[in-house]
């Protein structure tokens, strides 16, 4: 879409690749890695319960990254920090997303 192209064109190659991975779900998270037979489980390696490691879990819910979530999303984005669509598509939120990903060392 035009909006997607507008957002991607302003990013570095690396960051545009990360956005595309997160938007499509084809990311280095266990759900996708399991489906392409690179992992034996689709469960989050950081959670004791059987929670599938999907984009929503990685960005918003994983207790392993709870502090990083608050630092990179809650404080700067306030109430919009709970909106995954905002985090993944709003230019002002993307800089916080890339800092979060860098802090988690998951990508």
Model regions low in confidence, pLDDT < 50 over at least 5 residues: none
Give the domain tally: 1
Radius of gyration using CA atoms only = 14 Å
Number of contiguous helices: 7
Write down the overall geometry: globular
Number-wise, the strands total 0
Class by alpha and beta content: mainly alpha
- Average pLDDT rating: 94
Portion of residues in beta strands equals: under 5%
Largest sheet: none
In which range does the helix fraction lie? 55-70%
| H/E element sequence | HHHHHHH
Write up this protein:
- With 107 residues, the chain is mainly alpha-helical.
- It has one domain (2-104).
- Helices cover 61% and strands 0% of the residues.
- The chain has seven helices and no strands.
- The chain has helices at 2-9, 13-24, 30-35, 55-61, 66-77, 84-89, 91-104.
- Helix 5 (66-77) runs antiparallel to helix 7.
- It is globular and about 35 Å long.
- It starts with a helix and ends with a helix.
